[in-house]
Every structure is written in structure tokens, then in C-alpha cells.
Specification:
There is one protein chain. It is built from 6 helices and 4 strands; from the N terminus they run H-E-H-H-E-H-E-E-H-H. It has a two-stranded parallel ribbon with strand order 1-2. The radius of gyration is 19 Å and the shape is globular. The chain has a domain at about 1-110. It is about 40% helix and about 10% strand. By secondary structure, the protein is of the alpha+beta class. The longest helix is centred in the C-terminal third of the chain and has 19 residues, at about 120-140.
Amino acid sequence: CFFTFSTRLEDLRVKLENEGLVNISYVVVNHQGPYSQRKFHLLKESVSDYITVYQQDEQQVDVWTTLNGSKDDFLIYDRCGRLVYHLGLPYSFLSFQYVEESIKIAYCENMCGNCSYMEPDIDDVCENITKSADEKLAELEPKPTGQHSHQHNLRRHRHQHHH
């Protein structure tokens, strides 16, 4: 389980970095349970140095309880530290596109206008991501047939969750 998750998370990290999405922090929070505590070293060894593994102290309040989440959730924050997406199962499976798309949206959208945390070339990076997503959607869009000719809008809905 550790190996599959860590491989997919590392693959996603590298893919996003290759697309120009840099300076993203990835943190894995290890569960507080005794079994997870004993396996912490395996989890830590299964991810690259670019992904932080946080070990909860058994005596502290559980991080997931504090964040109103569960151990398999992805919480995606923008560069200003605001929660943009909270993805639980099954949306947190890395084999689906939800986590990747949520990271891209959080990275590219300017929720509060000009931001001192913006990367210099972010506009070009985000424009390429949007263009690529639009091309994929166009491929999926049904073609009109004969008498029944109308377009279906397959744009994704963007939901921001601010806490």
C-alpha cells in the first residue's frame, strides 16, 4: 500500500513540476494508530526527499480530527494558506484526475488578485495547462448528428472551499 501510494504521489509531483508547477509543498501525515506508528520508517523510505512525512505524536490531538478529515483525504491549500479543496475517498485516489486537477486549479487561480507569492512565469504555465485541458474536453465533446444539432458544454465546475 505504501509503495503504490508513494509511487503515484511521486509521479504526480514530477509530472506537475515538468509542466512548470514548481514550489508546491507535499506533506503526508502518518496516522496516529500503533500500526501506522510502527510502519512510519517504511512510509518515510517510500517517498522521495521532496515529500515531507509528518509523524503525529500519540499524545497530540489527531491532525485529521483538527482538519475535519480522514486519513485518506487530500487537503489542497493555495499559496496563501487557504484551503481550496478537501478531497475524500473516492476522489482522493491518485489513479483518478481529481487530485491533479485540484492542485492545478489551486495553483493557477488568483483568488485574491495580485499575490507576492506568485511565480514569475505562472501565467504562461497556467495558460498551457488550461489550453491542454480545453483540447482534451473538445475531444470528448459529442459531435452533432443530423437533425439534432446542439453543443454540450463539458466545462468543469470549479468549487472553492474557503475555511
